[in-house]
TrEMBL record:
<keyword id="KW-0472">Membrane</keyword>
<feature type="region of interest" description="Disordered">
    <location>
        <begin position="131"/>
        <end position="166"/>
    </location>
</feature>
<feature type="domain" description="DUF1232">
    <location>
        <begin position="80"/>
        <end position="112"/>
    </location>
</feature>
<dbReference type="GO" id="GO:0012505">
    <property type="term" value="C:endomembrane system"/>
</dbReference>
<dbReference type="InterPro" id="IPR010652">
    <property type="entry name" value="DUF1232"/>
</dbReference>
<keyword id="KW-1133">Transmembrane helix</keyword>
<keyword id="KW-0812">Transmembrane</keyword>
<protein>
    <recommendedName>
        <fullName>DUF1232 domain-containing protein</fullName>
    </recommendedName>
</protein>
<dbReference type="Pfam" id="PF06803">
    <property type="entry name" value="DUF1232"/>
</dbReference>
């Protein structure tokens, strides 16, 4: 029974984040700030977020490319889901408080995993676009491909999730 209550609370928290995402999607500056804040938090949590690290990094890259206008081939529903996941990650009010070692990020990992499942097709399309785009740009930084190849090698984490500043 308590698992069901927690699942319902988790869903309620995510739905609230989704409503916030729907409210701010029209304001690229706010979307960019959320992506930046999420990246700053994520960099400090790479260990606890290892399970969703590659996907999280790719989602932030896609949001940043969308905000900059470089990549617009993403459905609004996917943008909202990703922004909601980032808002949930940033929220100090989680189902499991983040200050609890290890366990504190389980709900964040779960929500980000659900978001990734919802937008996986769009992320694959973005990843293909990103790879094609980086092949055309001779001065690109290899850190942009880290999200897609991190499972193949232990490359150092870049300061930014995208090869260009937005």
């Amino acid at each position: 029974m308590s698992e069901r209550i927690n699942e319902e609370k988790l869903k309620a928290h995510y739905e609230k984040a989704k409503q916030q995402a729907e409210d701010i999607i029209e304001d690229p500056d706010r979307v960019k700030k959320i992506a930046e804040r999420a990246w700053e938090k994520a960099k400090d949590l790479k260990g606890p977020l290892a399970e969703v690290w590659d996907q999280l990094k790719l989602m932030i890259q896609m949001i940043r490319a969308w905000v900059s206008g470089e990549y617009r081939e993403v459905p609004t529903t996917s943008l909202i889901a990703i922004i909601a996941g980032l808002i949930y990650l940033l929220s100090p009010i989680d189902l499991i408080p983040d200050m609890i070692p290890v366990l504190g990020y389980l709900d964040d990992i779960f929500v980000l995993g659900v978001v990734f499942t919802q937008v996986a097709k769009d992320l694959r399309a973005f990843e293909a676009w990103q790879q094609a785009h980086s092949e055309k740009t001779p001065d690109t930084d290899d850190s942009s491909s880290e999200a897609t190849t991190a499972h193949e090698s232990e490359a150092p984490v870049a300061d930014e999730p995208n090869e260009k500043d937005v």
